[in-house]
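Example: Tetratricopeptide repeat protein.
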Amino acid sequence: MNAVTEKRGGAARALALTAALFSGLALAACQSGPAGELSRIDTAQGSSENISSLTQVINANPRDPEGYNVRGSALGRGGKYPAALKDFDTAIQLKPDFYQAYSNRALIYRFMGDQASALNDYNRAIQINPSYDAAYIGRGNLYRKAGRTRDAFNDFQKAIQLDTTDARAYHNRGLIYQQQGQHNFAIEDFSTAISLAPDASEPYNGRGLSYLALNQEDNAFADFNMAIKLDSKNAEAWANQALVYERRGDKAKAAKSYREAVRLNPNYQPAKDGLSRTSAG
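Written out as structure tokens, the predicted fold is:
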């Protein structure tokens, strides 16, 4: 993708999707980071070695806006946000209709907490190229975080209508369906996201929640296990696995999984509550 990959690990998870109750137990909510991407940041692409190579490319052709866009993306992946902004600014100065650079800069603004500037850049990218799916997905996540669910849904829907192959569009539309209790639609979208990004853990975790909502416990358990296999640091998946164990009456295994979720994210309340329930006595 052209947009800088979401920094899920380092960024605070911003939006709790759902907090349903099943058999008196709180369903651990699936959460996503600022831009809702499906995978952790590729820090190798933001390494000093890679930045140095990209700088050499820019030095050889300092009037090429693409070089600044690529280096800006790498800097963003490395968490060097001010430097990334500077590169995207230069890319846009050299090429005012560079819609990819606007969309990439928008994501950096999001990481930095400047949602208004992010929205302006997404709007500008879409104005320049109304068929640019990544900008709709990015803006949709911006809207979702702001609670503008209908606007978010429309943006994800637009990206899908553009025949996007970006799993984020389906994953995030699935999250909205899940919020609305439309779990069959959510499962369909999560399944499509899995087919497009089979190594991402989040769609498995999301689909597992909807399976659990439909009392398809075995399917849910399989999905939570797969989410953990793909990303052993996914605290929500550990908590959701624990919830299945708890529903089955296996408090020892539930407590073990809740404990791991708390270790990974000490502030994750569903895991803390679950550990308190299963460790009592």
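Strands lie at 15-16, 21-22, 25-26, 31-32.
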